[in-house]
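Person: Please comment on this record:
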Amino acid sequence: MVLSPRPVPKRKKYRIKRQVAIPLGIVVFLVIYLVGYMLWPKSQEDERLLRVCDWNAKDTEERLNQSFEAILEVNDYFTYGETLSLFNETYDMFSRDLFVGKTIILVNVCTEEERVYMIEQAIDGQIPIEDLQPGFYEVFVMHQLNRHRLVTNEVMDELVTSVVRNGKMTAARLRSDRYLLNASREEEAKLDRHYLFFEVYEEEVDLTADTRPYDIVIDPGHSSRDNGFAEYGWQANGLSEAVENYKMALALKEEFESYGLKVLILRGEDELVNSYGIDGRLDRAYMSGAKYYLEVQMVGSPNPQLYGTQVAYSSYASSRMPASIFKYLIENTRLESTSNRGSGNIVGVIPSPRADGFDGRMMIRESGGKATTAATFSQLAQEQNSSFALNNRRGLQALTIEYIYLTHPQSAEYWQQEYVEYAKKTVEGYARYLGLSKESSQGD
């Protein structure tokens, strides 16, 4: 039997008409393009381009690429403690800057929220770094009833920081650059001026890291060769001032550390360390990166009936911090204030007396950097402190607490029994003013 192959029917060929093919191709291309854009939008952008507020580079440029007619220049700045100050002219401690008495306005472009600060003459009277919230800010000053955008003549890229609070540090990056929105300086600048921006963020801090900067330094007075010979302060009622100051420094350090702060004591127990010069107390303070300087002192008198406690601060700063700390200390210990009065309402809170217009208390003056015009008062200060203090924009906000008259028998007796309590209440006063908390500190 012979089988014949079954014939296979021819398939009908379908052709897409030209009128349909072209639009269909366009649709397919657009679908592929849109899917690719949605899946990999950022891969198309140059990674060198600025992005803020979780925006992409294009949105960032559209929001920030503005031109302002009303502008004011920033020609100087510094930090004193945790306060950032901006100046229209080169800073001169003895003259009043154009910005003083005006308001500075920080506009968070991410949220459109505004933070407004009065600009005071005091060196701690402008922008509290710890008060800033994360975001990207445009900076204005109110002048002649109008907002003026702040600009600089030169490129600026500086980082300023707060002390550690609850395991976190506030950082503000000061940026001004016409090319801020560009991927390369070979392109034409997208901004017409060096507009000043603040980029603010919070940073988690490993409280156990040796590399983290210090927050506060403690200077136990005396045990130096400042006058060419070893000196140890007052010796009275069986006590040595240098020894007692160091004991107090240790007690203060322990208390500050319980709030998560990193603390440096500027001399060892038996170490002779001068105030001025390389590896002196001031040099160590600047090198630490700390924001605050606490000098521990006592006083004495040939008259054993004199007694009392007082705190001194820079005459170019406000009395807010020293008054708050001192008031808490006096109200919560046996200590009593001296009868000395400064410009405020609380006796025992005194600004440093001035000498030729400068703060007369040398540790307060020389620790403040540019803010207190350090390393310019005398030839000795110029020769020994200029390398680390002259025009240093990172000034430490200093207080000197003179706890007791060591020559007063009852004060000396109470001191031996209660100095640890004095330390505790001193630090609690700082904590209340600075907004520090033990409960949230790491490692407690």
Summary: The chain has two domains: 57-204, 216-434. Helices lie at 18-39, 57-64, 241-257, 281-288, 320-331, 362-366, 379-389, 409-434.
